[in-house]
Design brief:
Elements (H helix, E strand, L loop, with lengths): L1 H4 L8 H7 L2 E3 L1 H7 L5 E4 H8 L11 H18 L6 E8 L10 E10 L8 E5 L5
Parallel strand pairs: 2-5
Antiparallel strand pairs: 1-2, 3-4, 4-5
């Protein structure tokens, strides 16, 4: 690739993204949902679709919203027409900025990459604009 693109100017690793908060490690909960690989969600997904401030009330919780993100990814992967390194799925979610509103459908991607330690496979869940 060096012949085509030249010298690498800068790299940004998954470990760095986890350390700086661009990715949030959700592996423990993901394992309960059925994942067999380490899983992280992007900061976008965390803030928009997982995190639920307690002061908003209305029966939502960060844990429940994270579970929805993960379980729907597992279900989408298991029911996909054919295996793929990236799946797209739809999540119905109450927006944080409209806690009394109706759920809206959002599209998320779950991708398996070799970005783990030593090139190990890992899963990243993000919104389309994250890629």
């Amino acid at each position: 690739m060096r012949e085509l693109f030249g010298e690498v100017i800068h790299t940004y690793t998954r470990a760095q993204a986890l350390a700086d908060g661009s990715l949030i490690d959700v592996t423990e909960t993901a394992a309960e949902a059925g994942f067999r690989l380490p899983v992280a969600v992007t900061r976008t997904v965390w803030l928009r679709y997982c995190e639920w401030p307690e002061e908003l009330g209305t029966g939502q919780s960060t844990e429940g919203r994270l579970w929805d993100v993960l379980w729907l990814a597992v279900w989408a992967a298991r029911t996909a027409a054919e295996p793929s390194a990236r799946i797209t799925y739809t999540l119905g979610v109450v927006p944080v900025d409209d806690p009394e509103g109706d759920p809206v459908d959002v599209r998320l991607w779950a991708a398996i990459t070799g970005e783990g330690a030593g090139g190990a496979p890992v899963v990243t869940i993000g919104a389309p604009e994250d890629w």
